[in-house]
Every structure is written in structure tokens, then in C-alpha cells.
């Protein structure tokens, strides 16, 4: 059984690489949003034309990015949503809600200090992990039925 995993959320640390490297050898394919912050912010105006108003600049980018995000979430078996320490990830919360509404299996990944703020998101998830290694262990168990050694 192969798994398609969409890695959503925080883009300022290497958590995605940790999961992908840890899952090497598992029958898993990964997808993710564009993690180049400038490219993600400016894709709409770079492709569709400049906007003098920052609201419309951001809106164009958000809508173009939504095409990739929706495709990634809809094609996934599992959606991992990372909430980092430094920034509020409203987009990650939206992705978690979209994944829940789409009936996807969700794993949230965040530090303990976010437990209260994310209680509703965690309630929709099938697992809540603290570390990328725990996400890899979940994927290993789901695919192979084996526990960490």
C-alpha cells in the first residue's frame, strides 16, 4: 500500500526534509505548497499582472496558490499540518479545515504551547505529533504495522 502525504504549514524550518529523509525506503510520495516565501507571495502578480493595492496583490497570490494547495490536499491520503513556534499560520489552520472537510486523515505537528489554541484542529486530527520523527513513526506503522524499535 502506497501513501500520498501532503505536508502543509510552517515554512521556516526543515521539518519537511526531516520527514522525507526519515521516510526514505517507505512507499510514500510527498507533496507540499511552494515554500519559497517570495515566490508564494508574488506568484499572482508575476503571472497575472501587477496590483497597486496590497490586498489585491495578496489575493491574486492566494488564489493561484490555492490551486496547488487544493490539488495537493485532495490527492493526499494523509495531510500533515505543521504549526511552528514563531509565526501564526492562519493558512495552515485553513488547510487543516479544508482537509477535514474533505475527509482526509490529518496529523497535526506542533509544540505543546500551542495545545490550547489548536484544540479544535487537534480534535479533527487522527494524530497529534510533537516531532517530525513521530510523524515518520506513524507513517511507518500505517504502512508496515511495525512499532518503533
From TrEMBL:
Q: Which Pfam families does the record cross-reference, listed alphabetically?
A: Nuc_deoxyri_tr3
By what name is this protein known? Answer: YtoQ family protein
Species this protein is from: Sagittula salina
Amino acid at each position: 500500500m502506497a501513501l500520498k502525504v501532503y505536508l502543509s504549514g510552517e515554512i521556516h524550518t526543515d521539518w519537511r526534509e526531516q520527514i522525507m529523509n526519515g521516510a526514505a525506503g517507505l512507499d510514500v510520495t510527498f507533496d507540499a505548497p511552494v515554500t519559497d516565501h517570495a515566490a508564494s507571495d508574488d506568484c499572482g502578480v508575476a503571472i497575472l499582472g501587477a496590483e497597486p493595492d496590497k490586498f489585491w496583490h495578496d489575493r491574486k497570490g492566494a488564489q493561484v496558490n490555492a490551486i496547488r494547495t487544493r490539488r495537493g490536499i485532495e490527492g493526499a491520503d494523509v495531510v500533515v499540518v505543521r504549526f511552528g513556534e514563531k509565526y501564526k499560520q492562519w493558512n495552515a489552520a485553513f488547510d487543516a479545515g479544508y482537509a477535514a472537510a474533505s475527509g482526509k486523515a490529518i496529523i497535526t505537528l506542533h509544540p505543546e504551547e500551542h495545545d490550547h489554541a489548536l484544540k479544535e484542529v487537534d480534535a479533527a486530527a487522527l494524530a497529534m505529533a510533537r516531532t517530525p520523527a513521530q510523524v515518520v513513526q506513524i507513517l511507518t506503522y500505517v504502512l508496515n504495522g511495525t512499532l518503533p524499535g
